[in-house]
Amino acid sequence: MSVARSIDPDRIGFDPARLGRIDEHFRRYVDDGRLAGWQIVVTHRGEIAHSSTYGMRDLEAGAPVEQDTLWRIYSMTKPVTSVAAMMLWEEGRIELTDPISRYLPEFADVRVYDRGSVLKPYTVPAVEPIRIWHLLTHTSGLTYGFAQVSVVDGLYRAAGYDLGVPAGADLAAASQGLARLPLLFQPGTSWNYSVSTDVLGRLVEVVSGQRLDEFFAERIFRPLGMTDTRWWVDEADAKRLAALYAPHPATGKAFRADTIGRAALAEPTWHSGGGGLISTAADYHRFTQMLLRGGELDGVRLLGPRTVRFMTRNHLPDGRDLASFSPEGFSETVLDGIGFGLGFAVVQDPVPARVPSSVGEYYWGGLASTAFWVDPVEEVTALLFTQLMPSSTYPLRSQLRQLVYSALVD
Question: Which PANTHER family does this chain map to (predicted)?
Fold first, then answer.
């Protein structure tokens, strides 16, 4: 399956010349060496207005980006896991207010960091259990070791939770190990980007009775026709996988990061619901179209439309935005004017971030600078794929928004 360009973008409300600015702008990143290559897809009202590729999926091999290039989507896995959890919610098998210890007993007596150092932390009991909605909204108190901001981040790294989990751990063992670490804050009192969605993936396993990869394949990927989305790349498809890069500290040019990138070539011991998937533009396009259409695509319904609307509302307490409800740390989004729903960042007000968008737009991105958004007001979706880590290196996402919205003229 491929993603082809619309023959007549002005028929669906886009100015073709202005859409051309997208490629013109992002080509500069490749031509000056900052990116190896990229793929971009923009749709309006379910039709493709713009689809383009440029540069190399593998600089060293001289292999260009193609329609079927495989990309590590990292945290763009999180919305898929969130959809899986809400499918179980629609079946009445969980409630958002359930303590997760009902399904994951290792979280029955969690403690919260109070003061001290990595070598001698002091903790207090949690006064509120972690609930399922805390996992979906990243208000659980869990964190990421690689964030390297707090003492708790340091405790994660010391326990083997940095960019991954301790060697040989499966998702069940990873969840049990995380439960033994202190929370960054009392559940529900702040927002912090975290392994919450990995724990949510474990919860999906326990409730469904299936491994997470099996649930995804049976309940999401096969029904939606996402035939190229997987957890690792075998030898037959290895040439399609884009290489992973990072900015060179001296030149700023894309520098191959095989130490991390080669992990995609081996079957994982654990299935990371927070960042484990590899996909194509065509596959993730189908996922975003399902969301835009209220949970249904081509006669296949994963979620009810009211569930999708509920998921994509701001669920932070008192309608707060991330800027006022979050400690400093790594995130895949700007914070000002942005709320958070059940698995997605949600635009409350585009003005504070100084980036065009619609109130109610929802989105997320991945560590290697991939990104997507769904705008239910303008009926626009956009996808950006490249492989540069970390995603905070360049303002690719905000620039794509500028270019897409300035080309929408209907």
Answer: BETA-LACTAMASE FAMILY PROTEIN (AFU_ORTHOLOGUE AFUA_5G07500) (PTHR43283:SF3), BETA-LACTAMASE-RELATED (PTHR43283)
In 10 A of CB 309, how many CB atoms? Answer: 15
SS3 for 255? strand
Among the listed residues 395, 385, 394, the one whose alpha carbon sits nearest the alpha carbon of residue 41:
385
Using CA atoms, how far residue 42 sits from 22, 239, 384, in Å, is 10, 26, 9
Give pTM, 2 decimals. Answer: 0.96
With residue 54 as reference, give the H or E element that holds it.
strand 47-58
160 is written with which tokens? 């083997």
DSSP at 10:
G
Task: Measure the N-to-C terminal CA separation of the chain; round to a whole number of Å.
Answer: 29
- Per-residue tokens: 321: 């935005």
User: What pLDDT band is residue 268 in, cutting at 50, 70 and 90?
Assistant: very high
Judged against a pLDDT cut of 60, whether residue 1 lies above it is answered with no
Asked if residues 347 and 314 have their Cβ atoms less than 8 Å apart, the reply is: no
3-state DSSP percent of the chain in helix, strand and coil, to 5? 35, 20, 45
List of residues 6+ apart from 332 with CB closer than 8 A: 75, 193, 345, 364, 365, 366, 367, 371, 391
**Sequence-separated (6 or more) residues with CB below 8 Å from residue 259:** none
Domain ranges within the chain, ordered by starting residue: 83-208
Alpha helix (H) residue ranges in 132-191: 132-137, 151-158, 171-179
Q: State what percent of residues in the chain have pLDDT above 70.
A: 98
Tokens of residue 102, six digits: 């009902």
pLDDT band of residue 3 (cuts 50, 70, 90) is low
Handedness of CA 346, 349, 354, 355 (dihedral sign): positive
Alpha-carbon gap, residue 332 to 347, rounded angstroms: 14
CATH superfamily of 83-208: DD-peptidase/beta-lactamase superfamily (3.40.710.10)
Residue 5 has pLDDT above 60, yes or no: no
CB 1 within 8 A of CB 7: no
How do residues 194-209 score in pLDDT, each as one tens digit? 999 999 999 999 999 9
